[in-house]
Write a structure and sequence with these properties.
Elements: H1 5-29, H2 43-56, H3 61-72, H4 83-90, H5 94-103, E1 112-121, E2 139-143, E3 146-158, E4 163-170, H6 178-184, E5 190-194, H7 201-209, E6 212-216, H8 229-236, H9 239-250, H10 262-277, E7 288-289, E8 292-293
Parallel strand pairs: 1-5, 5-6
Antiparallel strand pairs: 1-3, 2-3, 3-4, 7-8
Length: about 300
């Protein structure tokens, strides 16, 4: 995948010029003594490198940093540090990446949204009992593919494939968890399409009171109900979010089992999500043309 490192750096630099002064000011005004130790690499450089990894095609960040960044990007980053030192600096990118994703990476609410969760496995099931890195944080979960040990990433997207909201939970948290749904749908309106895992009368009534109509497929033991043809066709297009999950995992590499720190796990996840928001082409439904809604009735 082609990456214009200059464009990525420019976007992150503009964000850091706005955010970092506000963040440091907030830290100093909290009454707690904070030590801001200068580093050879600026936060915008650290953010650029960790996000660029998810475009690189390398399977491990160590190979990317030692075999690509330190070899080919010396002129772009003249003050590169050792790999071990960079891993320490990655933790400082946690908050800026999270804020960038929430402020610059969010898509536009269009009235049509899709919701689903995907597992983030932190190790093979056979090694779960002796896994220490995420002890007390990860949990056992089950989806259509079977049991897994790790986390769930709950994702809400619009019909253009843009991220609207994401929530990370242990693997044993139900998709219909009220706190999770409240966070995901905080700024949402219109129609929300989900799978059978979101069937819940209380959830339907709660969202309807908030101006959101959730539409799901039905189970075999449920009576079929009539619905508008547009809703039925859009429900059949719910696979768009499965395609987005596949892109996040296999292109942006948000899932792997080599984490040695919970903080760096979150940094890797946020960087992968930010990388997805910068993709020039995302999975999308062709429902809009010149800002006019097209009621597509094609199966």
């Amino acid at each position: 995948m082609y990456l214009d490192i200059a464009v990525l750096f420019y976007k992150l630099d503009e964000f850091c010029l706005w955010f970092l002064p506000l963040w440091y000011k907030r830290q100093l005004s909290s009454g707690e003594r904070q030590r801001i130790k200068p580093s050879q690499l600026y936060p915008r450089e650290v953010m650029t490198i960790v996000v660029a990894f998810h475009y690189s095609g390398y399977r491990t960040f160590k190979d990317f940093y030692t075999k690509h960044v330190q070899v080919y990007w010396r002129s772009e980053f003249p003050h590169l540090v050792s790999y071990n030192r960079f891993v320490e600096l990655m933790q400082e990118a946690l908050v800026p990446l999270a804020v960038y994703l929430m402020t610059q990476g969010k898509g536009k609410v269009t009235g049509i949204a899709f919701v689903d969760s995907t597992p983030l496995r932190v190790c093979h099931n056979r090694r779960a009992s002796r896994h220490k890195v995420f002890e007390g944080l990860a949990g056992w979960g089950k989806n259509s593919m079977g049991w897994f040990y790790g986390f769930k990433l709950h994702v809400l997207v619009n019909d253009q494939g843009e991220l609207l909201s994401v929530v990370l939970t242990p693997g044993n948290v139900d998709d219909r968890n009220r706190e999770v749904i409240d966070i995901l749908t905080k700024e949402l309106w219109g129609k929300l399409f989900g799978d059978k895992g979101y069937i819940c009368k209380e959830l339907f009534e709660q969202l309807m009171d908030e101006g959101i109509q959730i539409i799901t497929t039905i189970k075999k033991n449920m009576k079929n109900k009539l619905m508008p043809i547009v809703d039925k066709l859009l429900l059949r297009k719910r696979s768009i979010i499965e395609t987005i999950h596949d892109t996040l995992k296999n292109v942006c590499q948000i899932e792997h089992s080599r984490h040695r720190s919970p903080i760096n796990f979150v940094v890797n996840l946020l960087a992968g999500l930010v990388a997805y928001t910068q993709l020039p082409s995302k999975p999308a439904l062709k429902l809009w043309d010149d800002d006019e809604y097209l009621p597509v009735l094609i199966a």
